[in-house]
Amino acid sequence: MSDGRAVEELVVGVLGGTGPQGRGLAVRLATAGQRILLGSRDAERASEVAGQIAERAAAATGNEASVTGGANADVAGAADLVIVAVPFGGHADLLRELVEPLAGKVVVDCVNPMGFDELGAYVLDVPEGSAAQQAAALLPDSHVVGAFHHLSAVLLEDLSKPTLDGDVLVVGDDRASTDLVQALAGRIPGMRGVYAGRLRNARQVEALTANLVSVNRRYKAHAGVRITDV
Amino acid sequence: MSDGRAVEELVVGVLGGTGPQGRGLAVRLATAGQRILLGSRDAERASEVAGQIAERAAAATGNEASVTGGANADVAGAADLVIVAVPFGGHADLLRELVEPLAGKVVVDCVNPMGFDELGAYVLDVPEGSAAQQAAALLPDSHVVGAFHHLSAVLLEDLSKPTLDGDVLVVGDDRASTDLVQALAGRIPGMRGVYAGRLRNARQVEALTANLVSVNRRYKAHAGVRITDV
C-alpha cells in the first residue's frame, strides 16, 4: 500500500527485473533515488543483477543506491508498489501465484503482448483485452495500472544520457493509483506521466509498441512517444 | 494514381469533407497549397463548405486556394489521392460504392472506430481488425494507407496558429504509398509523417484516439502525438 506516502518513500518492486525492460526501469528509478527490490524467478540471479544496478546507479549519482534482489514472490510481498515487467508468455501464470502478496497494492503492468514474424512485430490477442486487464482480472484486490510500455530498454540502460525524451502513458480506473504512477514516472529526468484513460483502453497503449518496433527498424531509432498540447 | 508526380501536384479528395476532421484537413492542406476536392453525400453542401474553406485558406496565405466541392463518388473519381474522413458508421457502405473510382489510387483512411458512453470513449471492434484493414478488404485495387488519426479538428481549423505540433503516424503495406502520404502530412507546417508499420498494426493507431479523448478531458487539451528519437 502507498498509504498516502509520497512516491519517493515507496519501495518499488520490479518483477522480471533481470529482463531488459525491468533492468532498465530499475536502474533509472534507482538513479532517481527510489528504493528498488528486484524480482526474478531465480533469486540468486536477481541478487547478482541488483548488485550491478546498485553499483551503476551509485556511480552515476555519487550517492548510495538501494537495490536488492529476491524471488518474485518475496519481492511482491515486501514492496509497496510493484512493476510487472515479465514477458507476456509468463504473465498470467506469475500473477496467479501472487494474488495474496499483491493484494491492496498498486500493480503497474508494462507488459506488451507481441509476437514477431518475418514482417516484424504484431499484436497478440489477449482474452481479457490487454495484459493490464488480464492482470486486473487475476488480481481483484490490487489496483492495476498500465504504464511504462514505450520506453526503450536500450535508452533506459544508457546512463550516459541522464535525461530521457518521452512520456509515460498511464491507464487505470483508480485515480489515486494513476496519480501515484504518474508521479513515479516523473521521477525519471525528462519523462512525464500522462493520464491516458481507463483500463479498458489499455490494449492500444500496449499494442502501439509494435508500431514503435517498425519505427525503430525504419529510422534506426529507439522511438518513444510524447503527447502534445499537455 | 500519383504516377510518380510530386505530392504538391496531386489533387487531394476528402470524402466526408464537410465533417470536422475532413474540413480541418482540407483547410490545412489548401493553406499549404494543395488542390482539394471536397466530397460529401450532399454535393451542394460540399460546394458551400468548399467555398468557405477556399476563402479562409486564401485569407490566411494571400494566395488563391483551389477547393471545389462535389458528391463523394465524383470526388473519388476525379482526385489523384483520396482521404476518407467519414464517421465509422458509414465507412463500409461508402467504400463499397466506390470500388471502381478508387481503383489504382492511394486511399488514406483516417477513420477512428470509437463509441462513447458515460465513462468516455471506447474502441469499437472491427471484424477486419481496423477501419484501414476494412478499407483494404473492400478496395482490393487501391493502395490503402492509414494516417491523420490524431489531429485535433479544433486545432486543424484554427488557422490563427499557422504551425501545428504533432506527428502523423502512417501505416501501410506499399512503400511508395506510405512515402507519398508521409510527404503529404509534411506539407502541413509543424507536422511530420512518420512511418509506423504495416496495415496489420493499424488498429492501435486508430484506437489510440480514444486515449487522446481521455487526455483531452483530463488536461483540457487538444492532444496529439510525437514520436521521439526520429
For this entry, give a set of tags.
homodimer, 230 residues, alpha/beta, Rossmann fold, eight-stranded mixed sheet, two-stranded antiparallel ribbon, 11 strands, globular, oxidoreductase activity, acting on NAD(P)H (chains A, B)
Describe this structure in words.
Two copies of one chain form a homodimer. By secondary structure, chain A is α/β, with parallel strands linked by helices. Helix content of chain A is 37%, strand content 23%. An eight-stranded mixed β-sheet of chain A has the order 3-2-1-4-5-8-9-10. Chain A has a two-stranded antiparallel ribbon with strand order 6-7. In chain A, helix 2 links the parallel strand 2 and strand 3. In chain A, helix 1 crosses helix 2 and helix 4 packs parallel to helix 5. The first copy, chain A, is globular, with a radius of gyration of 16 Å. The two termini of chain A are 29 Å apart. The mean pLDDT of chain A is 96. Chains A and B meet through strand 7, strand 9, helix 8 and strand 11 of A and strand 7, strand 9, helix 8 and strand 11 of B. Strand 11 of chain A pairs antiparallel with strand 11 of chain B, so a sheet runs across the interface. Chains A, B: This is Pyrroline-5-carboxylate reductase catalytic N-terminal domain-containing protein.
- The chain-level structural class of chain A is alpha/beta
**Approximate strand percentage of chain A:** 15-25%
Within CATH, the superfamily of chain A carries the name NAD(P)-binding Rossmann-like Domain
Q: What is the subunit organization of this protein?
A: homodimer
User: Span from first to last CA of chain A?
Assistant: 29 Å
* Strand numbers in spatial order across the main sheet of chain A: 3-2-1-4-5-8-9-10
Helical amount among residues of chain A, as a percent range?
25-40%
Number of domains of chain A: 1
Number of helices of chain A: 8
Largest interface: A-B, 41 and 41 residues
| Whole-number mean pLDDT of chain A | 96
- For the secondary structure, the number of strands of chain A is 11
CATH topology of chain A: Rossmann fold
Low-confidence stretches of chain A: none
Sequence of secondary-structure elements of chain A: EHEHEHEHEEEHEHEHEHE
